[in-house]
Design brief:
alpha/beta, 2 domains, 3-stranded mixed β-sheet, 7 strands, 16% strand, elongated
Length: 160
Amino acid sequence: MILEHQRDAEKFHDGINFDATKQQAIKAHFLNILNRQPSHGYDDTGLFVVFSAFVPIAKEEADSKLSEQQIEDLKNRLGNPDLWVISRCFGNVTFMFYTDEQAAKHEADGKKKEYAARYFEILKVNDEFEYLTAEDFAVRFDSKQNFDNNFEGNWYFYYK
């Protein structure tokens, strides 16, 4: 079952798991609809009901439409020699500086808000469903130093 917002999908959870009672109710309702049309053609064997929100997927898709060249162009426009890379994963954006000290300095200087606004400018073009807002959009600051020292320089470990 796809719901629009995460807060709606969470109503169908019981802690970290799906609410089994709600799963059963929706499954029974769906099967009832199918039984009204005997030639429906669906295989309902092992039917499993899950709940997911559309908005996070739409936001992630908007980000995935940005090309690596657009990201590199943004990095060049920012012109910050301390910036190592702009990393993206699952709709999350992290501006990676070379050192922890640089990341902290630029955050203290208010660059996080500026960089989020600049990234949002290029991202908003891909917001097909108009879910993204500048007020809710945020980026992270981190460092290559942290990436190398604590995640073995491995993006899999970093985003896990």
